[in-house]
Task: structure prediction
Amino acid sequence: MPQLEELGISHISINPQDIKVIGQNCPQLKTFMVLAGSLGRTFMMNSDDNAFAIANNMPELTRLKLFDKNMTNIGLKAILEGCPHLESLHIRMCYDLDLDGNLKKVCTEQIKDFKFDLEIEDDYYDDYTLSSRDVDDLSASTSIIEPSSAMEESPNWLAMPHELMTNILKRLGDVEILNTQVKVCTTWWRICKNPAMWKAINIHKPDDADGDADYDFEALTKRAVNLSSGELIDFSIKGFGNDDLLDYIVLRSSKLNSLCLTDCYDITISGLNRALKMVPQLEKLHIICTSLTRQYTEVMVPNCPHLKSFKLDDLDIYVGINTDTDALAIANNMPELRHLVVSSTKMTNNGLKAILDGCPDLESLDIEACYFIRSSGNEVKLCKERIKNFKGPVDLNTRMLQFMGTDDAEDYDAFNFE
Result:
């Protein structure tokens, strides 16, 4: 339909390639309206791809009504330059637009009818469908898909108390919130911008991250830290991170109380040392499967005098400083410990005794993977008597048999390390 001049679309998912095709096949298009009765179904591409597609393929536009949650100032400028005949421009809920500067002045001077609305009105669901005025204005050639009756009868979830909404959103996970939920509507946007939402940050990169290939986890983490506005208390990451990111976090988190690093192989000893010196109030430190374990007592222990929960867990049973260096460092520097998990060190019964003497308030102790401790020793017996939640050492041969999936010790004499 090369003669088409007006086109309205509602409740249809389109992308930049679709816009390009529309523009190429409708060179006379003067009115283009893209609306949505169901948030999140339209314009899901990142950045300004949709705006660029309009600017590059619809030069004759005089009227544009747009719902694009990801458009930035760059995209809006492209539309103004690529569509010089615009007389009417309505854009709504474009959260990444910043019209406080000169751009708003340009829009109002260049366009007779310019509206930018970030708010959700009482007629929210109706407002994002084609209005009666839109329908009347469109010619018979216009393509329209009307909202379903089910959508019109949907309950107003936006009336839900913010405390309950916050609880629900947090269950979706921080990555989902930062990438999607913050852009759904103004109410969710405001909730997600509240620093109280980010007192605890937990961002884990999936082991199989193919589905999240477009996510920059370090950038997401920095964004979450910025949103916390210094209120961050509990921080946990998995599968990514480096010294620079750790510096970024501690420099902006003076109230940090808990730090958990899992599979963060690019964080170095010097980086951790620098970070821990900046958060001496830390009460919880968990280091799991990183490259830090060989020197951890030299760094973590002296810088964390108020630790109440300490976990060091690595899968390699040979990692760790010989004898009881680790245990003595813990015993001499962590008198306030309540919870301790130590794995894959070469701690002996003497080291265990030092911990019992130096950490009298222990409520839980896990030394299940400390294979050089004799389970028949008096120290293990004392642990069972004094500590409420105690996991004692498992014999290395037994652990090997469990790992290999057998109970037949005769088949695995080679695993005898005694």
Observations:
- Residues 36-46, 119-152, 315-322, 406-418 have pLDDT under 50 and may be disordered.
- The domain at 158-415 is CATH 3.80.10.10 (Leucine-rich repeat, LRR (right-handed beta-alpha superhelix)).
- Residues 195 and 227 are 6 Å apart (CA to CA).
- The first strand starts at residue 6 and ends at 10.
